[in-house]
Amino acid sequence: MRQYQHPDREHISLTGVLYGLSDPTRLQIVKMLATNQEITCGEFCLTLSKSTQSHHFKVLRDMGIMHTRLMGTQHYNSLRREDLDARFPNLLEAILKNAD
């Protein structure tokens, strides 16, 4: 079974998080994750090809913003809010509050 790599909390960098959130599509994904516990890939309703969506999900995982777990054929995605808040208090909330 395929497993995704996620950086440990202490390896999440500020520049990585800011890079991950700098793209409007990735910011939209994070905003959706912020209002839900977990979302499967199909529930995002993005008007992008699957390969483009996969790229954005990978960037968010690699930067430590999103966690993906597999259950059968479903990919469940969640926001790593606790880890982000521990590393950079109030950063995520400020970004989400001020994102258009």
From TrEMBL:
Q: Boundaries of each HTH arsR-type domain copy?
A: 6-100
Q: Name one Pfam family in it.
A: HTH_5
* Keywords, in A-Z order: DNA-binding, Transcription, Transcription regulation
Give one GO molecular function term: DNA-binding transcription factor activity
Q: Where are the transmembrane segments?
A: none
Gene3D superfamilies tied to this protein: Winged helix-like DNA-binding domain superfamily/Winged helix DNA-binding domain (1.10.10.10)
Q: Identify the InterPro entries for this entry.
A: ArsR-like_HTH, HTH_ArsR_DNA-bd_dom, HTH_MetalResp_TranReg, WH-like_DNA-bd_sf, WH_DNA-bd_sf
The entry's protein name is Helix-turn-helix transcriptional regulator
Origin species: Pseudanabaena catenata USMAC16
State the taxonomy lineage.
Bacteria, Bacillati, Cyanobacteriota, Cyanophyceae, Pseudanabaenales
